[in-house]
Amino acid sequence: MFARILFASLAARRLRVLLALLAVSLGVAVATALATLSLQVGDDLAKTLRAAGPNFVVQPAGAVWPLDLGGAEFQPARAGTSLPASAVASLRRSFWKHALLAAAPELTAAATIEGRPVTLLGTWFEHRVAGEDGAWVTGLRVLRPTWTLAGSWPREGADELALGRDLAARLDLRPGRSVEVAIDGRARRFLVTGVITAGGRDDARAWAPLEAVQALGGRAGQADRIWVSALVRPGPAGPEPDPQRDPAGYERFMCTPFPANVARDLAEQVEGAEVLPLAEVVAGEGRVVGRLNLLLLMLALAALAAATLGLVSTTTATVIERSAEIGLLRSLGATSRQLGTLLMGETALVSLAGGALGWLLGSLAAAAVRGQTFGSGGALEPLLLPLSLGLALGVAFLGTLGPLRMALRLDPATVLRG
Question: Taking the alpha carbons of 355, 360, 364, 366 in that order, is the dihedral positive or negative?
């Protein structure tokens, strides 16, 4: 009997039902789209921010590193310690191997080019690293995507050279020239293949294949440091959970890619090495992602508030239109609880339908926005469907509460008298 009255009431008010459905659907659709973007775009944005360059450095324990984020300048490690260049492959065996985007070893040498002193860096440009999951192509080319190159990158294993813009201007060199490069009296001729615009101190340096610099400097198989670019989350606001008092919280903490966790695990893969997060870079990325999530939350709350106000308006108009019907039901013995159940049931049914429709529309909108912004689509998020339905029921409750109180205050005798 109750269900028949409920559905008959909805069928008799198609226009009002459609308006209520539209209000809930749009509010939930916006909230769902923003929630989907918050879940998916965080990693996309982090990858985009990673174009700024590496956010970790692996170096021998005890190495001296005067920090300068405008172009970090390293000094040789104490007592001539160094890292094996093969340590990059070891990093790919860490727990966070899927968070590693790029890595490149680097060997610094005080060299001369045509008799002029320069800082020469040996590194990988496009190197294939064998691993359990297949070959990993990494090097300076993917590690520093914002650097611009006039010419071409030096080839792996070749006697080729790339010069920073300022260094090329100082030496009056350009791609295609052959120059003599010397380290500690050992000299070889290199072909200049490109001029790099990097910014800061890097514009005054030269880069060559790692093997060539190792051979010329008499440091076969060695590297001074390894630059690493990895996807991480901003560091936690609170301290690390106590593993004895909160083992579940401690496990969640350790399985989250916080910079300290990633650095600790990477350091365990290379004997005698320490891994340092570039704190300002990581913190800056964390602030950007955090502010984006806060903005998305505020927009979602605004959309839900607008949906609630729209539903309040529609439900209030419905109560006014149905005042005679409500008075008749009260005069026939309907209790306040029965009347409230009827009005809440009508709104809940409409809101659930609007929540399901809003989830679908929001998911499709999020996929479209993500595809246009980051060049990648996104699958529907089924886990957000219960959230969307819950939000719809919340909007239904808040949007019906005021009109319901007004309906319960109606005097049947006054209403029926006209």
Answer: positive
